[in-house]
Amino acid sequence: MLVHKVFPVSIFEFRLENFKEINEKIEKYIYEQKKIDPEGIIRSNSGGWHSKIFDLKNVNELLPLIDFSKRCVKSVFDGYNWEFVPEKINFVGMWSIINPPGTFNIKHTHPNSLLSAAYYVKAEKKSGPIAFFDPKHVAVMRHPKIKEFNELSAEHISFEPEEGKLFLFPAYLEHQVNKNRSDEDRIVISFNIDSN
After folding, report:
1. 106 vs 101, 147, 176, 177, CA distance in Å?
2. Among 6, 11, 4, residue whose Cα is nearest residue 172
3. Is pTM, for the whole model, over 0.90?
């Protein structure tokens, strides 16, 4: 039997070297933003704190992450064999979410972008995996009983958060973040990428 795995959906995973020192500065910056704006905004967060969009022109603490992310975005464009023109690559917003124990993010997408990202600043064990869902909704409408999920039958897949880890994925891909079952805050930075 020959199996043609067509129309794959890719989730790209990267790891920032020397992330500890960088994350300490980013974490301090994020908590300072929360003090300035304790209410934050509500998007996909069920509980927790969602920042407003960062002003990237005035945030030195985020520069190492931005530089790293730009290199990762180029790798993703290369993976898709998309034309990569640095001047046309735009960060369409960057924000942070602090999820204390018991909070989570409901299923959502990031419309009007090519790629979305999640970078983990703080993530203890059991702080809640990120789950991605099969975008082919008709594929999960009807099927026989599944003995054990594999890459052909899986309806969703989860990844445990780890500090210094960056996920880049198609912005249309539905995802959620499961409940933080640790005793510490989970802190993530998210952003979208577009090209014009």
Report:
1. 15, 28, 5, 7
2. 11
3. yes
Query: Degrees (nearest 5) of the Cα angle 119, 18, 68?
Result: 50
The residues, any chain, with a CB within 8 Å of residue 165's CB and separated by 6 or more, are 13, 14, 15, 16, 119, 120, 123
Task: Find out whether 195 and 113 touch, Cβ atoms under 8 Å.
Answer: no
Of the candidates 170, 171, 163, the residue with the CA atom closest to the CA atom of residue 188: 163
**Strands 175-177 and 165-170: what pairing?**
unpaired
CA distance 118 to 94: 10
Tokens at 143, concatenated? 């099927």
Strand, helix or coil at 45?
strand
The DSSP code sequence of 98-143 is EE-TT-EEEEE---S-SEEEEEEEE--TTS--EEEE-S-GGGGTS-
pLDDT digits (tens, 9 = 90+) for 105-137: 999 999 999 999 999 999 999 999 999 999 988
